[in-house]
Amino acid sequence: MDYVNGTINFLSSIFGMFFSIIAIYNVLTFTCENQCKEYKKLLIFQFSGGFLSSITQLILKIQVFVIHEKQITKIRFCYLIIYATLCPILITISNWFCFIYDIPESLSQWVEASNIKYSIFRKKVYGISGKINSDEALPAYFSVPLYFGINYILVFVHYIKYKKHMQKFTTVMSDMTKKINKEFMRISILQCTVPLLVSFFPILYFIVSLFLLPQLFVATFGTHLIQILSFIPIANVTLFIFLPSKSRKKFICFLKKIKDKIICKNFTITKYR
């Protein structure tokens, strides 16, 4: 199982970095008027974030497990709070209330008894934990529907406002501008909703199974959940690359250039042997 998780993390990171670079290349090579420059900057910022996210995933290799608890020391709790304050506000709040226990000293016995084969479980392994069914964990669970609710509301409110604004100029738009605007609106709504949908159902299953359906809960599902969330940058850049016809053509041309260079290089090597 350890090799499976490692392979998933590696492939997800590599594809995330590759498609992010392709998306940034497509944006930089777009020729547009002055009013499109700010949109190009926004896309470059978005895909650069996806590239950095893929690198972070490759380096950290975050995994989540369900284990027994032991009271954490005050010093380590202070270290945890210092670390948590460097994270996004949502994660900080969740860590503050939830992660109040240390991984038990009997971790090796627990791993052996549970027949879990993971190379990360060594004698000097360190981690943080919290009681799933405790009152301290409630802020984290309530923050999940709050987070998704706010995101869905913002997405659809801004989409409707933008659509109404652009409808005012339909009479003066050229056919090409209408086509570009249509593709932009389609990409925008998909880039906003697809990541939310991809992450919403796994997170919902994770929380419901913890409380209501413990027989369906998998101890390592938290790790798979992080892998699913790490897939979001790939989903965004993939939508941008393959949905617009212009971007799709640029991607195909880019692959053809790489293929031609490889063939030309192999031919040169063969010729001079």
TrEMBL record:
Record has Membrane as a keyword: yes
Keywords: Membrane, Transmembrane, Transmembrane helix
Regions that span the bilayer: 7-28, 43-65, 77-97, 140-160, 187-213, 225-243
Protein name per UniProt: G_PROTEIN_RECEP_F1_2 domain-containing protein
Organism: Strongyloides venezuelensis (Threadworm)
Lineage per the UniProt record: Eukaryota, Metazoa, Ecdysozoa, Nematoda, Chromadorea
